[in-house]
Queue: 3 jobs
Job 1
Amino acid sequence: MASDFLSLISKDIAIDLGTANTLVYVKGQGIVINEPSVVAVTRRDRKVIAIGWQAREMMGKTHGDIEVIRPMRDGVIDDDEVAELMIRSFIRRVQNNRLMRPRIIVCVPSGVTKSEKRVIRDSAEYAGAREVYLIAEPMAAALGVQLPVKDPVGSMVVDIGGGTTEIAIISLSGIVTMHSIRTAGDEMDDAIANFIRRNYNLLIGERMAEWIKKTVGSAMAMPEEIVLTAKGRDLVSGMPKAVEISSEEIRDALSEPLSQIIAAVREALEKCPPELSADIRDRGIILTGGGAMLKRLDQRLRDETNLPVNIADDPLTCVVRGTGHVLEDVDFYQDVLLTNN
């Protein structure tokens, strides 16, 4: 009863604490925050200067007294102190009543360890949470696209985020087969930056690599190939430099991380029980997360698996929307939440 009363007078929150972006869902309101998981602090006393979009604009452009930090790495907290500051800031933005501590549900990778769970719980509690629940990202993504996760039927989700790719086959409110690999959007950006450095002696930043991926990155040949200009610093002369890069070259750069993701999907399918395999043959694979938006990735997976592959509507918000469904009725969805073990 006390918990129900507190839920009425505080704003309970669902958080998709992603490597690239953090999304916050408030009970009864929907998604209210969608910002980069980036924090700018002073080096001397770790005082926060900016969080989210404002901090991201500072990446690669700061002087020696300011450090821009991404506190999440590979889907889990890498810098406890800065992550807590970021979570606290987002909570304060949506909480009018600072005295009432909210109940929070946080999404985590399906392969998260016990110690990583503890770090996430502790960070949320120190940031002001009354209670903290955890949910696996692929389960949240499945709920976000309204798959029948409670039914005795197999549903397959491939969630490609910034730090991890989460692959899960779900049935009866549980993950029957899962595969979590730390190859996702960030590794694609690194592959592009490394390719350009090796082939053009050009050093580019994280934001430039991400922009190239989104603009010309693809998993298969496109009907019309694209050329763009990459800008950075010449490694030989040290001077600013610009080179033209084709979509074919970027596709070559992305071949290794994409091969790892496809291999993980195939491995999950090979471990799937026969009855659920039949369901997936009929129902197909759902792609979610920012990586699902890579051009022609769905077609590449269709060719590799001979299965139907569909991209979720608004794949970037699937996980937080699914977590929001749980937040709206925690008792009904209790069986999809992770235990402390």
Job 2
Amino acid sequence: MSQHPDFTIPADYLPRDGRLGSGPSLIRGEALDSLATSGRGVLGTSHRQAPVKNLVGSIRSRLAEFYHLPGGFEVMLGVGGATSFWDAAVVSLIERKSQHVVCGEFSGKFAAATHAAPHLEVPSIIEVAPGQGGLPSTDPSVDAYCLIHNETSTGVANELGRPEGPGITLIDGTSAAGAMPIDLAATDIYYFSPQKALGSEGGLWLAICSPAGIERIEATTRTDRWIPASLSLKTALDNSRKNQTYNTPAISTLWFLDQQLGWMLERGGLTWATQRSLTSSGTLYNWAETHELITPFVAPEFRSPTVVTLDIDDRVNADDVVAVCRSNGILDIGGYRKLGRNQLRIACFPGIEPTDIELTTKALDYVIERLAGI
């Protein structure tokens, strides 16, 4: 087992809350406190009864307000997280063939799921190098275009575009939803998990559906394709309209999500949340641009406001930086391991205080200078 250096970072360099991971993310202390007080009457009760159904209804209503949903758009949700949504999309949304813009681990996982499906044609893949973004390309053989708004593994924010033609567009917004603006005219299904900018835990997926997306769900259900009930988006849609999920959800996840949406709406909604993440990420990018040993991994035109990836000069081992930070309470800032770079990855979601990001740069200066001997 490798040994990492360890030393104490001065207290006045440490963030107030060091939970800076890119997911699961920081859950605000106020939300935790509210679960222990107001939430006590909801935990341990049936998700088919009014208290939990009212909670789901509040989430759907607040998301509609947060995103200013156009007429005919609906919010649906289900148990299982974005990974389960990929499986649901494979059986409930894609008719014959999908196209995927792959720019990292998570966009690649959805492509792999469709490639493995025996009832679908081999998907079209547009693959770009990690750290770069890409756009879909019109293909008359494709009926579902699959993009990612923000690639969590690399810190790339993608430009979104809807190809011409009849295909629907599916956009993974897991590390973007709640902190990055989106033109809903560019998407038919905008889906995400709530354990990042939306300040909750995993195990749940949510999707904003256009009328065309809803029609695709309905049309696929009318075919003779076998669709398991737990992966049926028609079942999820029908239950969502009743403010419930098909199977039992984690009520604490619903509670934290509702609390986070209310907190952001009180402060200005998506516009406020977007600016807060831009402030925090800008602090990190500006700091890295002038640092002798740190370089932003992503080019300026693709840089994410919610997940910042920073390369470290080979004179300093990123694992050592992460280990020292962890021992001092700054948590989960390691790069995505499958990317294989000497890198840090720091979340800048709205629930993270921008002042804590500023303090983190001071802590990193302290650690890197000592590890590099400069």
Job 3
Amino acid sequence: MTEIDYYEILQVSKNCNGSELKKSYRKLAMKYHPDRNPDDQEAEDKFKELSEAYEVLKDESKRSIYDQYGKAGLEGRGMGGGFGGGGQNMDDIMDMFNSMFGGGGGNGFGGGRQQRRESNQKYNLDFEMEFPLKFNEAVFGCDKKIDIKYKVSCDDCNGTGAENGKLETCDYCNGQGQVVMKQGFMSFAQPCPKCHGEGQKVASSCGSCSGRGYHEEPETITLNIPAGVDTGNRLRAQGHGNQSKSGQRGDLYLTFNVETDEHFVRDGNNVYIEVPVFFTQAVLGESITIPCLDGELELDLKVGTKDKAQFSFKDEGVADVHGNGKGQLIAQVKIVYPKKLNDEQKELLSKLQETFGVESSPHTSKFDSAFSKVTDWFKSRKED
């Protein structure tokens, strides 16, 4: 049986760093998490593969062994790579879930996310959504009105999804609410995938909510987006999540997706801009005006500026979202040459080239020894 490569499972390259590994894992794990994919065996299996791969690759010693010997090398050293396998501890497992869901009750920007849910409730109080931002909105911050829909428990079935709230014992876990999974010599209990840990299942679906256990209510909210947010950052909107049976509202988490800009390229808090420079400007070293995030700057080109040369402007980048100053604006030169020359221009350039003398033909002196060497090679071949 062919093994699926751990790097392929996590969609990363073999030379990825820890940050890239964690980012890819969190994205994929949230996509295939059982809570998001109820009764989906394929998603559940995918989630287990992701967890197994991440547990190995995030550990430098395990990763080194895996790179050399594959899974067989890990098993041979008593280091099963499976999720919950030997070599792991519960703190490590909880840390992984906390990092994925932002465990801990943070506030405002970058706050943690908890999977809060009341008994017999079919949805979490907290929910999240991707939120697109224009480049300038992310850089400078803004107030945004957004329309959301939050879940409210169905009164007719008391949030159970069953007609008249009538439930029966789950036949998959025999009412235990959990199943035991074995990984090598270790055993771990996890919520039943059929009843999601409740131990009961719906006998007949509620007609009011079509068995969902909830209705959706519309809401328009205004959020203050801080300056400096970037793709992947999250904002917690406290009290705008789903509503429990008791009337408590959870939290809404927005994950930002920032659009790219035609001219500015962002890298963290630094911003890059490509500056087209005509070859004569580069040779002469002119001063030119370039755009920056909040206006314009003067770029003083040095005499003989080369293609791809970079000029940095301190504190002209993006404001750090946590208040730690600003990044840099980095202008990168792109030398532009004329596509066509008329006779007069050719003549002027030829005269200019002549005024530089030997300096205008640097290849001549550089290749003298090469020409001589090649000539000797041909002579020796003929003599042979």
